[in-house]
Amino acid sequence: MLSPSLRYLLIGVGLLLLVFPALSYYQTVWGSAFNYPFEDDFDSLLRFINGFTKAETTAGQKLSLLVAQHNEHRIVFDRLVFLLQYYAGGQVNIRTLILIGNSSLLFLTGLFYFASLRSLSLPARLLYFVPVAYVLFTLHFWELTVWGMASLQNLYVLVFVMASFYLINSTPSRPRAFWGACAFAILATFTSGNGLFAFPVGALMLWLLGQRRYAAIWGGVAVLTAILYFWGFERSENLPSVYDSLIGNTGRAIDYFFTLTGSVFATSPEAPSRAGKVLLALYLGLLVYLIRARRLTDYLPMLGMVTFVYVTCLLLTATRSGFGVIQATSPRYGILSVVLVAGIGVLLVEAMKHQWARLSVGLGFAAVAVYLFFTTQGLNEVKVADRTRLLQLCAAFYNDNPQNLLVYWGTSQQEGQRILNEAFRRKTYQIPKVTLADLASTPRQLDAAEVIPQGTITAEARPFETKDHIVFWNTWAVADGMDAHAGRTEIIAQAPGQAYAFDTGKHMRYDVASQMQSMQFAEAGFSSVLPKAALKKGQYTLWLHLTDGRIHAYKPLDQGFVVN
User: Is 342 left (phi over 0), alpha (psi -120 to 50) or beta?
Assistant: First the structure.
């Protein structure tokens, strides 16, 4: 029996350990979220708001816009949040939407906590739950950290599914909870298409709980929801053939599935696939063990969640593996692998009834969780900074000259610009007042005699000159014998008797890595804004300086500028 003081100490330690990864994650979200559209934001958000708010749009047309298909999904929840934010703030703010989308992780963590380890005392429950937080608040799914519509869709669907399963588990003791479970399953379906799989998994849970009557009602709700979802549904022509993906290329589909489910272990090219196989073995082993021990119904919400994620991964394998195995590592899908690790980890801990066995499994889970948390931070912080910096430069270019309206939307540059211009006219969205001066690097004075050609640099680095700035944009550089991840790039402006160095921001350039046939060059991209006003008058030559602290390489560029 613990003394009160030791009990409170352990509770405090548990809470501190739980809070740390969440604070770290939200510090990244707060500092990186930027109010500029990216990819599907143009279509799902801005085009929708532009059409919905037109005075001539009828009530029927507004309803059609709300439930309209977006790719293979009915993103009604996203659009309701868009409207709520728009009418509350007077215009669309994508930064706010990113913050709302990422708040989902707090709800998901809370649901995981309430659904697991219920037989333990509060101090033990908190301490054993700590690894779950370190897994859920990784940056493995970094793209959702800085993407408005995608964070709402891909994160909240998991919250609604978990809430539905939690309430299903409460149905035997609280029959009214069943109707809440139905509501959350419907909401999940109209948040992201995979939410529809909450119904078959939920039906199995109700059957295992002996709730036959509710299972029948659940089936009826599922049928009605599916009819509404698929009414007028059109399959995307861009998707690969399911038959070809699963039957024609079975080996590729298997590799895709295991890479997808184990993607959070992306420390080497082979690691995700191997991890995916281990996770599936653990999941199937748990099922066999719990069935034989007749304890399956003790852990239904978490088992249901893990099963739901596996079904989702099977669906993605059927519809996406034709794009190639590399697509399984897409960060927007990374949350699925994260949830699998968190769910299977806590189930392993909970299934161990012997105190020392549970402690051993708990420590192993904690070691894996902490390793994943800090590893994914190092791998993905630069990607988050890359995305934010690119969007900030888009805003700054526009504010410097409205003719420079840059769009990150692979569907159509021209259509993206048209949507943005319509939003400007209707005042539904406004580009943040970020300027090139806000993004400018501070010059550091050098000895001009030190700047001489040295080493071998390969680069594409033609700057863009404005009245007051020199801007390096969509540029890259690599030096022989230097890993781009460990190295850094500086821009040097050299004039007779004087030289200045400017820091750059790193950007991901997978095209360069492909060209060089090595992922060590994936971080070869860079950007920098040089303020002319910070320099003395003179005729300047521009140089690249690449260094990893051990090797230094200098190369002059064929473009300079004059400061009068």
Answer: alpha
